[in-house]
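Anyone have tokens for Deoxyribose-phosphate aldolase? Sequence:
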Amino acid sequence: MNRNEVAALIDHTLLKPTSTAEDVRALVAEAAELGVYSVCVSPSLLPVETPEGLHVATVCGFPSGAHHPEIKAAEAADSVGRGADEVDMVINLANAVTGDFDAVQAEIRAVREACPSPVVLKVIIESAALTDDQIVGCSRAAEAAGADFVKTSTGFHPAGGASTHAVELMARTVGGRLGVKASGGIRDAETARAMLEAGATRLGLSSSAAILAGLEA
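Reply: yep, here.
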């Protein structure tokens, strides 16, 4: 894939807790210059003014996922009301590690019902903290609950971010029926390319400019 094709798959991300409205304006300006798909910001920074064609994503239950489903659903609905086109929700990891995938599916469905299509719902499973079987179980739950994407990571978990192994496993599980977003720890063009080759269909990046500079036009 060339530079422009990769740019069109990027969620240009700013989720530092200290980020300000001025930081978001700079993010949007850079995103427009780079030609990325969207900007991703914290809910408290919504609404965001963007040029035509640049989408707005936000997060939900972020970063721990340890929130009640009804709180996540309310947060997602509020964010959509403030102009978010896409919502990246964090699952309750305790349900995943105990194998309670019915609970994983139920909370995803609660958020899905709170922000129905055409809002894009991505489900963050923190793949670095899970076993292969847990990754598969969460990916299946996301599909059954009506999500649009499964996503590797928040980028804030101590276990780490995206890996090509996790992306391959998630992509194989959802079989093209859902998108796969690789996010967390992707800081150079080589790693970004490897994630795409493994099956990622969206990239969550905070180093978008540096990564795109390393790709051929």
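The CA atoms of residues 142 and 160 lie 21 Å apart.
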